[in-house]
Design brief:
By secondary structure, the protein is of the alpha/beta class. It contains ten helices and 14 strands. It folds into two domains: 58 residues; 269 residues, Aldolase class I (TIM Barrel, Alpha-Beta Barrel), CATH 3.20.20. A hairpin with a 2-residue loop joins β5 and β6. The radius of gyration is 21 Å and the shape is globular. The structure holds S-adenosyl-L-homocysteine. S-adenosyl-L-homocysteine binds next to β10 and β12.
């Protein structure tokens, strides 16, 4: 089987052209064609015949196939992709003013088994390859170009789909390198966010290997026992150690870490929870994202009412920590946070 072209970052391509005595401009031309122009057909633009022949012979240019598309009334789009081995993953385009953020999956299923997350009920099937991650972006872009022409602007990338991105570090890192490359999509590091449940081995590699990319931590409770219940890996990598590891990450003046907090009715939505959270994050370059719990078939938790959510935020405001209540998008097609489950997508 041929290797996928979309597994190569720019320096891999440079190396390949050098090793195979191809014109060194081939790397730039190919990146430009596939990632900047995002052309579907084979590259013919300014590419020497010998280079074209080499890449056609050795590389596969196919992308994950779009299996189904669900469009929400709020214009959120959820894609179900079919991979070569017939596994499926989901990707979500989240609209804002005719532009989009894309929520990418990093694994088929997830090993974290968080009690509030639909994906967790699937278990981990396997890691996605770089080409399967980059492919979600390219296919979503092409879909927009066809179905919403003029709106093919994906300005932010968040790794908040299925999977724990730091548990698939190498493939996610390479996908980031491809997105960041100035020869291709040229997406700024500040426009990419990787969300983690607190997987310390990945966090330790973070700042060294993908500098500038934003980090979001799924915190969900400052109380050890409650966090253990929500996020089982907290028993192995406790919040205190996770926060200490994050504190080591050098941030620029304008940079901050996003702390995500799912609000669950009568579980972590009380004023004491807000006060503990505020105290825990005081003094950090923090930004809090409150996510009202999204229900899914069979879920055991509920969402608090709006008053409770606003009171929770008001307490955090007294700590002077910037806090945003994340509005839910796409929940009519099960595309909201925590509702992705490629096995049960038809529910
Ligand atoms: N594994 C990573 C990324 C995937 S989850 C992580 O844990 O961060 C992306 C975000 O969706 C996380 O903040 C996660 O906690 C949140 N989420 C998961 N299930 C949810 C649900 N049912 N309702 C609301 N948010 C949920």
């Amino acid at each position: 089987m041929k290797a996928s072209f979309y597994d190569l970052n720019y320096s891999d391509l440079e190396q390949l052209t050098a090793q195979n005595n191809l014109n060194h401009s081939a790397a730039t031309v190919l990146f430009n064609w596939h990632y900047k122009k995002k052309q579907q057909a084979q590259c013919v633009d300014n590419l020497a015949k010998s280079s074209l022949a080499f890449f056609q012979e050795h590389y596969d240019f196919s992308l994950p196939e779009i299996d189904t598309v669900h469009e929400s009334t709020d214009r959120t789009v959820k894609f179900l992709f079919k991979l070569k081995d017939h596994h499926k993953v989901e990707t979500v385009l989240i609209p804002f003013h005719n532009k989009y953020s894309i929520c990418l999956s990093s694994q088929v299923g997830c090993a974290m088994n968080c009690s509030f997350c639909f994906t967790g009920t699937q278990g981990l099937k396997r890691n996605l390859t770089t080409s399967e991650i980059v492919g979600q972006f390219l296919q979503a872009w092409r879909w927009l170009a066809t179905h919403r022409p003029g709106e093919e602007r994906i300005l932010n990338i968040v790794f908040m789909g299925q999977g724990e991105p730091l548990h698939n570090f190498d493939a996610v890192k390479k996908a980031c390198e491809i997105f960041l490359s100035q020869h291709g999509t040229s997406i700024a590091a500040q426009k990419i966010t990787i969300s983690t449940a607190g997987y310390i081995p990945g966090l330790k590699r973070w700042s060294q290997e993908i500098p500038g990319v934003n980090l979001a931590l799924s915190l969900h409770s400052p109380v050890e026992a409650k966090r253990n219940e929500l996020i089982p890996i907290n028993k192995k990598y406790p919040l205190e150690e996770v926060l200490a590891t994050i504190d080591q990450i050098p941030l620029s003046k304008k940079q901050f870490i996003t702390y995500e907090y799912i609000l669950i009715k009568d579980f972590n939505d009380k004023p004491e929870d807000a006060k503990k959270l505020g105290a825990l994050l005081t003094g950090k370059s923090a930004y809090i994202n409150l996510i009202p719990f999204n229900a899914f078939p069979g879920s055991q938790y509920q969402r608090p009412d709006l008053d409770t959510i606003e009171q929770f935020k008001a307490i955090l405001d007294t700590f002077k920590i910037p806090t945003l209540i994340r509005t839910t998008k796409g929940d009519d097609v099960l595309a909201a946070c925590g509702q992705l489950n490629s096995k049960k997508h038809n529910l």
